[in-house]
Amino acid sequence: MRRMNTGLIKLLLAAGFLLAAPVQASAAKIVVDAGHGGSDPGAVGVNGLYEKNVNISVARKLRDLLTEQGYDVTLTRDSDDYISLSDRVAMTNKEKPDLFVSVHANSHTNANASGSLVLYYDKDFPQASYPSSEEMAALTPQSKRLASLVQQYMVAKTGFADNGLVPSAAYVIRMGQVPSILVETAFLSNASDAARLADDSVRQKLADGIAKGVAAYLPLTLPGGFSDIAGHWARDAIVRLKEKGLVEGDGGAYRPDKPMTRAEWLTIADRLFSFGDKLKTPSGTTGQTTVTGQVYQDLPKSHWAYGTFQNAIRLGYISGYEDGSLRPDQPVTRSEVAVLLERMTDGSAQGSWTKTADFADVPATYWAAGSIYRLKQKGIMNGVTDKTFAPAKNMTRAEMAAMVDRLLAQNDKAGRAVQTDGSGKPAAVPNTGKPANR
Ligand SMILES: [Zn+2]
Predict the structure, then answer these.
(1) What is the pLDDT of residue 280?
(2) Structure confidence at residue 138 (pLDDT)
(3) Are residues 197 and 342 in the same domain?
(4) For a Cys staple, 154 with which of 209, 218, 237, 309, CB 3.0–4.6 Å?
C-alpha cells in the first residue's frame, strides 16, 4: 500500500482506535474426543484392529502434543468406556472449549477405499432428518476452516491419500456450540491403511498433523499480537492489515465485533485513498485542510479526526445530516460504507447497476441499492447471508477489516495501487469462498 507511515498509527492511537482496555485472555481450550469405546469397538480392521483403540491412542498423543504447546486439553474419554454421543456433546458444551476434535478411523465395503478425510457440519448441505444446533449452523465457516487446516497438515505429515473435506450430519459435529470436526484418519477396511494404523509411529504422525492444523487455526500467539481474534472469522484479514500497518495493537485487543465509528472509517479510508493527494490542484498546490462555511457543532477543531473530516467534506464524500450534525463518533452503517467507498474509488456512486444478489432487505428503491449491488458484484462487499445484506446494521471492525482486505487483494491482483484519481475500478476477481462479510 502506498502512503503508509507512522502518522496513521499516531492518529489511531489518539483516536482510541487501539483500545487499551484490558481484555480477559483465556487459555485456548480444546476438547478431544476418541470415537467409540467400551462395548462399541467401532470399525474392525482387516487386520483385526479395533477402531476404538486406534482412536484413543491418537487422541492421547494429540492431547499430549497440544498440552506441551500450552493448550488446555480435555478428553471425552481416557479409558475404554462406552460414552453416548449426547453425553460427549454435553460434556463438551460444559467445558466451553474453543474447538472440538473427534478422532475416528474409517471403514468401507470397498476395500480399495483409503486415505484421510475430515467431516464438519455445513449449513449449505443440511439434512432434513438431522437438524443441527443453531450455533453449529452459524459456525459453518469456522468448522470448515478448522477441517481444512487439519486435513492439510495431517495428509502432509502422514502421506495418507487426501480425500478432502466432507459435509456431514454426524451427531458430535452437528449438535455442539463450538467449531467442530470429525477426523477420519484412514481406512481400517484397507489393508495398507490398516497396517499403518497399527503402527505407533504413524499414529504419532497423525496426532502431530492434527495438532499442527489446530495450532494453525487457533494459534497461541498471533502475528498481529491481538488477544481477542484467535478463531475469529476475520482473523486472517485483521492480521494482514496489521502487517500492512493499517491497524495496530500494543499487546492489546482488536475488538473485532465492536462497531466502527464514522471517524474511524474515514481515517482508514484516508490511508487507502490519500485525501490530501486528491485535494492537490493540477498546479501542485496543496488543498487546504479546513473548509470555510459550514461549521459542525459536533466536530470541534480539537476532534482527533477534524482534518480528515474536512478533507472528506471538501472532496464531496460526506456532508452533514439534516440537523446540521456530522456525528463523527456515531457507528457507521454498512450502507454508508458502501456509498462512501464507491465515492472514493469511482468518484461517484451513481453508475448503472443490476441486482447482482438476492438481498431481500435491499429493494431496488433502497437509497444505497446501487452501491451495494455494484460492490457485491465486484466481490468487495458480501451479504451477512446469501439473502440478506443488513444495510442499516452498524459495520463492525471485523467487517471493515475483511472488506479492506478484499479491496487490497483485488488491487494487488491487478498489480497496482488502489486508484486515487477516480480513473479506474478495482479489478473483479472470482469469489474465493471466503467467509461472508459479517
Ligand atoms: Zn468411528
Answers:
(1) 79
(2) 94
(3) no
(4) 209
> By residue range, what is the domain housing residue 50?
29-217
Q: Which residue has the higher pLDDT, 239 or 122?
A: 122
**β-bridge pairing 99-106 and 162-167:** unpaired
Q: What is the pLDDT of residues 55-93, one digit of tens each?
A: 999 999 999 999 988 889 999 999 999 999 999 999 999
Cell 502518522 locates to: 7
Active site residues: 184
Q: Write 342-347 long-range contacts (CB < 8 A, 24+).
A: 342/371, 342/374, 342/375, 343/316, 343/317, 344/269, 344/272, 344/273, 344/317, 345/273, 345/418, 345/419, 345/422, 345/425, 345/426, 346/422, 346/425, 347/422
How far away, in angstroms, is 116 Cα from ligand 1 center? 13
* pLDDT band with cut points at 50, 70 and 90 for residue 321: confident
* Boundary residue ending a domain (167, 195, 217): 217
The verdict on residue 431 lying in a domain is: no
- Same-domain check for residues 196 and 247: no
CA 106 – ligand 1 centroid, Å: 6
Q: How far is the CA of 41 from the centre of ligand 1 (A)?
A: 9
Question: What's the chain's average pLDDT?
Answer: 83
Q: Which of 182, 174, 89, 90 is nearest to 135 (CA)?
A: 174
Is 438 a member of any domain?
A: no
Same domain, 212 and 257: no
Is 267 found in the same domain as 171? no
CA of 133 to the centre of ligand 1 (A): 21
Mean pLDDT calculated for residue range 122-148: 93
Residues 213, 276: one domain? Answer: no
Query: Percent of the chain at pLDDT above 70?
Result: 81
- Domain total of the chain: 2
Which residue among 161, 190, 217 closes a domain? 217
